[in-house]
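Our collaborator T.R. sent over the components below with a one-line note: 'Predict the complex.' Nothing else. No constraints on interfaces, no templates requested, no preferences about which chain binds where. So this is a plain run: every listed entity goes in together, and whatever single assembly comes back becomes the starting point for the next discussion.
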Amino acid sequence: MDLLNKQLIKYNSQLTNKEEVFNEIASLAVKQGIAANKKRVVKGLIKREKESTTGFFDGFAIPHTKDKTINKASVVIIVNEKGLEWESMDGKPARFFISLLIPEKEAGSTHLNLLATVSKMLVSDEARAELLQLDSADQVFDYINGHLEEALN
Amino acid sequence: MSKVKIVAATGCPTGIAHTFMAEESLKKAAEKLGVEIKVETHGQVGVEHQLTKQEIQEADGVIIAADKDVDAGRFKGKPAIDVSVSKGIKDAENLIQQIIDGKARPYKGSSKNETPEKESSETDSGGVGRAIYKHLMNGVSHMLPFVVGGGVLIAVSFLFGIHSAEPDHETYNQFAEFLNNTGNVAFGLMVPILAAYIAQSIAQRPGLVAGFVGGMIADTGGAGFLGGIAAGFIAGYIILLLIKVFKGLPKTLDGLKAIFIYPLLGILLTGGAMYLIVGPMTTINEGMMSFLSNFQGSSPILLGLIVGCMSALDMGGPVNKAAYLTGTALLSDGNFYFMAGVSAACIAPPLITAFATVFFKKYFNEQERNAGLVNFILGSTHITEGAIPFAAKNPLVVIPILMVGSSISAILTYLFAVQVPAPHGGFLVLPVVTHGFLWVLAILIGSLVGGFLFGFYKKRYYEKNEVGVE
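Returned assembly:
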C-alpha cells in the first residue's frame, strides 16, 4: 500500500511538545517528497488542532491537514517516548501520533477511504491495545498495512 | 418487538478523520446494544451512505454527530439527539441508549446547525467576520456558473456583429439573438441566485425562498449585485428571527411552519424591506446622471476618475448604469469621446481579476482561476459582470481596487482622446474606434495596475490567514 511507507514511521522520538510533533511530521513528509513546503504543513496541522483537538483515547492522536503543497495522500506515524498534553478525549497524554496528510485536490476516493480506514481502526479498543504492544517501526508498518489490506478485501 | 432502528449523520470540517471515527463508533455501539443503524457520512469525498426519505421515516430516532451542516432540516419532527462529532465518537453508546430509552426530543432544527461553526467560533474572535465571509462565499460559488455560462454566450453572440441580436438591425441574425437572449436569462438569474444562497447559508431552506424573492426584487429594481447581497443577508436574518419568534409554538405545528409560516412571512417581510431599498434606486440613478452631466466638459483626469469610479462601484447597479446611460445618450448626440472612457472603465474590472488570477495564481482557488481565464473573454467584450463574483466575496476591499484600475483606464482613454462610437462589444468594435491601439493600451495599463493591487491584496490576506484556500 503506497499510502504507508516505512520511512514515514518514526519510533521512540524524544519530542517534548506539540510544536515539535508537528515539525517532525512535516520534516518527515518533506524529506520523503510527500510535501513541498514544511512551514505550510506545520501551520495546517496547528490550524486543524485549534478547531478542535485531534487527541483520542489511550494516548492516540490523529493530527491531519489538507494542503496544496502536499502531493500524495500519506500517513506519517510518530511514536513518542513520553506522552504529551493533547487535550485528548479521555484526558490522557498522547504519544502515538498517526498523522494524515492530504493533497488539496485529492480527487480519488480510494486514498480518502483508506485514510478513513486508518481513523476507523483506532475506534477499536483491541486495535489500540495491540498497537501499543508493538515496539518497532517495522511492526507498526506491518500492523497497519495488514489492517488496510484486510479492509480492502 | 422489532429491533430499534436508528439513522445517524456524521460530519466534521475537514471530513477526513472524525467523520469516520464517529461512524465507526456509532456502528460498534449499535452492534453492542443490538440496534440497527445506518450512518450517513459527510466527509471530504462527499456524502456517503445517503439516508433515504423512507429510512428516516422508519427510524425510531436520529443521531446527529456533526460540526458542520448535514442538512439536518430533513430530520424535523423525528426524535433526535444533536451533538458534536467528538461526542459521537466518545459517547456513542450513551447516545444510542438515549434513543432506545425514548429520551430523545423531536428535532426542531437546532441553533447548532444554523451556525455550524458555533463550537469553534466561540474560541475564535474572528467568528462574525468568518461567518459573513462564509455566507458570501456560498452565494458567490452558486452564482459563478451563471456569470460564466451566460457571459460567454453573450460574448459569442457579439461575434456575429455587436447589433446582431437586434431584430431590426441590418446585421440581425436569429442564432445570435438566441445566444444573446439565453445568455441574458442566465445573467438575470445572477443576482437572485447570489441572494438566495447567501440566505440559504444563513437560514437553510426557508432562507433560500426568501432570499430568492429578495434577490429578484433587487435585480428588477435595478439595485445590482450589492442590492442582491443586501437581500441575501436581510432574508437570512429575517428567517432566523422568525424561527426565534415561533419557537414557542407546539411541535405539532412544525410542518405548518416549514411549509406555510416561514415562506409566507419570510417573503412578505423580505419583500417589504427590499421595496424600501430599491425605492430610491431610480433617484440615485437619476441623481448620478445629473451629477455626471455637470462634469462632461471637465478635465480628462477628473472626468476619468469620476467615470472610472462610477463604472466599477456597483457593476450593473444604479451608479454604473448612470455612467453607461449618459454615455449612450451622448453617443446619439454625436459625442464619441465620453463613451470611450465608460467602455474602458467597464472593460477593466473583469480584466483586473483575470490578470490577478494569472500573475498571482497560487493565491486563488481553482474555481477562481478558471473564472479568471473566462474573464479575459468577458472583459474583452465589455461584460463587466464577470468581475462580480470576485467583488462579491469581499466588496469593501475589492471594489475600491477595481475603481482604481477602471479610473486609470478611463483617465488615459480621455487623455488619448479616443473615440468609441458603439455602446458595447468591447474590443470587437476596435475597427471603428479612433486611436484603437491607444485605447487598448489605456485599458491594459489600468487593468494591470488593478490586477497587481488585487493580487497583492490576495497575497497578504492569504499569508495572514495561512493555509487552505477553502
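Summary for T.R.: The mean pLDDT of chain A is 86.
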